[in-house]
Design goal:
Largest sheet: 9 strands, antiparallel
Radius of gyration: 33 Å
Strand order of the largest sheet: 2-11-12-13-14-9-8-7-6
Strand content: 25-35%
Distance between the termini: 81 Å
Amino acid sequence: MTIINISDLMDGLGDETLALTDPGVTSPERILALVRERSGRTSSASARHPKAKKTRRLGRALLAAAAVAALLGATAYAVYELVIDRYVIDRPFWFESEQEAAANPASRISLVGYQGTPEYLAFAEWEGLQEKWQAEKMAFWQERGADDSYHETSDSYYGFYSAVTQEQADQVDAIMAKYGLTPHTAWAFYSSAAELYDALGTESFYADALAGSSNGYVYDDGTFKDEGRSYVFPDGQQVNLTVFVSAKGSFTDISGTLDMTGGWDEWSYTAASGVTVDLVLTSTQGEILAETGGAYIDVSVSAGRTREDLQAIADCIDFAVLAERFDGRPHPETGEKVAAMAQAAAAQEEARQAEAEADAARRETASRDVIARLGAYGIAALPEGYKNTLTQGRQERDHRLPWTGMADFDQVTRAYWNQQLDANIDLNVFRFPDTAKAMEDARAYFCGADWPGTQIRGCDGFVTAQEQPGSVIAVWYDPERDVLFLLECARTGLDTDGVLALAESVTEQAYTP
């Protein structure tokens, strides 16, 4: 019995034909070879706008011939052609406004499968719902008075799809049931190729010619995203690679972009690993596409070069290793390893959080101690629109201010900010081992030794404009308290007289954290 599985075979056939009178065209294998041989295709922006209706494909005519050959040979045979048109998503991101979409010339491409596959259809349906919910999002949050931590659902995997309400969770389940897919239930980040290989249970699939180190994330079914690799050409130019492998049968929510506005070239190529891949080259990017029995593979190249260059990059990835790993069979050991990696990362994060909280407590205690010794000061004549954003006391060790050679000092800082003006007022109070000498150093640094003195609240000091536009500072020394004040006003619009008036109004105030 003859079995033919050809996707969209007769849809939009082009004018091109394949002469079946060729005596060599006698088997499906021969037809497939001709498909690969003649599949060098060049398109231009005039032929297809990225967000316009798709054009006819040469490959469809060849596939029709393949169907005839399959019938004649009475052989169980399935064939389809992977071309970039079948991966293009003809709509903007669900979170993009019309203006943002119009300003972005890049086409969106699916990373989870080509058009018509269950993975693609599930992704497309879920995205349509995301767009609908985006329009309702603000009303939803306002109605519930919720923040980003709001979550109605209990199963952790809904978070992989940004589903936070029960309605959204129900839709996730409904879509997976409709298309026969399973969810991702665990993921983990990795920081080396060795960790990725161990999670997948594979040998290395990167050649030594690829520089850099791998980092990214991997799901329980082996779906992974890998970044950090690059290819260096003989002329010294370097391009970065992003590898995404999406396991078939899983529900994955991700897409990429490819700028096709300047035209593109696409062809098939048998890489050094012996696996035939599809290559797409634009003026700004490259794309390497492959399919195994259990996964879709996408390698995004950050810059456009030549056909030979893109083929050289494809030769550096062992697609045979990936094909062997992603063969359509379950690999439960990956799920176990990913879960273990996630648990280890969670334990590390918990320990880090505990240490951070302990460190914050130590810093707060130290700050209160410094503030108690120096006193808390504030500006009584603070201009309208400025809010106290920070009061911090600290002890500095092995750190030198640019205007003094002393590394040991106490400091309290009270910061004010005007959001509308993006303007800052910082009041700093210092005590050094020799604060009187620190005042001399400040005068020499900011003004020069002959700068005339100014009386600020009866203390020796000065006010001067700095090199930065709109920055004015006042510095004065109070020998009674043995503290030095530095008042810095950035982008406030105040002149030296205005800053002097602020300095005159500085008084001790109650401590506010």
